[in-house]
């Protein structure tokens, strides 16, 4: 039988990043948190938390934290516990920034209104969110990776459409005779982070170009849009965010009428917890309203 007070302490340290913040969350002293964590590690004979700034879980610690999250969700289904007024459990989800800036907030809000539960969102590139699920850090992800994850089910949501855009002044300066392989590799481009391959995939698909352009690193969906409008660089924007600016003339499409669709999937633990089903239903309903139809 696992020592759940000690497991709660380990989970809090990993989530909050320090023993002091975990103590504040659990309403006990940092010394008590340390004793619970150290005592549990000694009983199991393995290190569970790597002490540092921040504190992080070892592989064994991640497994135990994932187990604790699942138990908390299952407990939320028990009326006698839900009615006791205890702390509310949270559902951990990994999602890409562009989904969070467009359609996903509607699903989260619907879920919270229905369940009264909290959510803990982790931002990650859509091609890598499933890795967070495989390590047990989260229980559900929005992903572009359709590959199955053990113990999970995957649901196709539909594509999120992107358009390659820049300001009119930028286009006149860097693409005076049009966009081609050469001009794409001289004009500054924006990327979200090192995992973001979207601009390169578009250049390859549209112009058979291997993109090796001067790059600005902009880890913000809103910043991506604002800096494109300001003339910093070109980049792929979610169509729903770019359209008002295109209509207003503050952005122009590099290839008019061209879109790049990124298929999105919802991969979620098969754990029989009501909260996961409610969140899944909310995601499916909102995706039908805001994403392109799932290709047949």
Q: What is the structure about, briefly put?
A:
46% of the residues lie in helices and 19% in strands.
SSE topology:
Layout: H1 4-16, H2 19-26, H3 30-44, E1 49-50, E2 56-57, H4 59-76, H5 79-82, E3 90-95, H6 97-100, H7 104-115, E4 118-123, H8 129-134, E5 140-143, E6 152-166, H9 168-174, H10 181-184, E7 189-191, H11 198-207, E8 215-217, H12 221-229, E9 235-238, H13 239-248, E10 252-253, E11 260-269, H14 274-290
Parallel strand pairs: 3-4, 3-5, 7-8
Antiparallel strand pairs: 1-2, 5-11, 6-9, 6-10, 6-11
Helix pairs in contact: 1-2, 1-3, 1-4, 2-3, 7-14
Family: Belongs to the LysR transcriptional regulatory family.
Organism: Sphingobium psychrophilum
InterPro entries: ArgP, LTTR, LysR_HTH_N, LysR_subst-bd, WH-like_DNA-bd_sf, WH_DNA-bd_sf
Radius of gyration: 22 Å
CATH superfamily of the domain at 160-260: Periplasmic binding protein-like II
Q: At the third CATH level, what is the topology name of the domain at 160-260?
A: D-Maltodextrin-Binding Protein, domain 2
What share of residues are in beta strands?
A: 15-25%
How many alpha or pi helices? 14
Element order: H for helix, E for strand: HHHEEHHEHHEHEEHHEHEHEHEEH
- Helical amount among residues, as a percent range? 40-55%
Rough shape? elongated
Number of strands: 11
The CATH class name of the domain at 160-260 reads Alpha Beta
